[in-house]
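Subgroup meeting minutes
Present: P.N., E.W., G.H.
Scribe: E.W.

1. P.N. recapped why we're keeping a running log of single-chain structure predictions: easier to compare across weeks, and new members can see raw inputs and outputs side by side.
2. G.H. added today's entry (322 aa).
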Amino acid sequence: MQAFVFAQFACQAGSADEAAHGAAALAELFAGEHQPDVLDRGRFTDTAGSHNVVWLAYWFDPEAHDRWQRSDRVRSAWEQLPSDGPVGHWREACVIPVERNETLHTHRRADYATSGLAQHEAVELPETQVHDYWGAARDRIADSAVDPFEPGLPVFEPRTALECDTLGRRITVEVPGNVALIRTAQDWSASTLYREKYLADVKPVKDRGVDFLATHADSGCIAARNLDEESVDGSPLPRACTIAWFASLEHLMTWCRSHRTHLEIYASFFQMVGGGPGPLDVAFWHEVSVLPGGAVTTEYVNCHQATGFLPLTAHHHSTITD
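Output recorded in log:
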């Protein structure tokens, strides 16, 4: 495998019920021929107060994903989405070269259920010595040995709603090269020793850190989402994940190693496990990727201007304007 696809497909609405109903209407697209190898689901409330229900899909064969999205049923379903009204939809898909990705897990798949990339038995999770220091994530990305990942967007400066009205429109955004994507997750489904302490002392600190990123563009974070994960029918699961886009890997790493909000996350985690009652039984993992130019495709249908990459107004291309 040289590359894989990670894609987010979401319904955005003013109420949780409307968002869930819209997401349910998309569910049938992920069944049948060329369906994703892994399919997760989650929900979050964004900085504008809108509810978003998101399908998180992985294809380990980019050609299968391409055939899926070009199929009549998928193409027509997306083209027929209304570009006005109370509901919006968005999709962000990226073809991730394996050499530009790294993943790290606290538990083996055989011992603990997991979401994301490692659900699939084809993904190996060898032990690594490249960890436990600032910069380890960069070192685990193979291409970092030969590529400095210079950002196509050195400074992220979002525009305001008054400067760009995106509701009632279909907009694609040309995503600059070398943006960084992280999905980082927590699973307490099998925890008996640390569940209560994690939920009371660590998760709230983590959530505050992600909320900071979502509202402070000077961090270089383009979008940050705190998702509560769900089963495919929308039932809550005892796990969560954060998905965030950064203007560059260096922006992500600078926040991790030096900003108060991330250092507080680290401190709360080590306070939880230090001198704990036994082996850690809350599972943690993450995936970090640096995307070359042209690897990310986006479309936003009737979404508010703070959604995803829409703040990059200079990179907009309207496909339909009502």
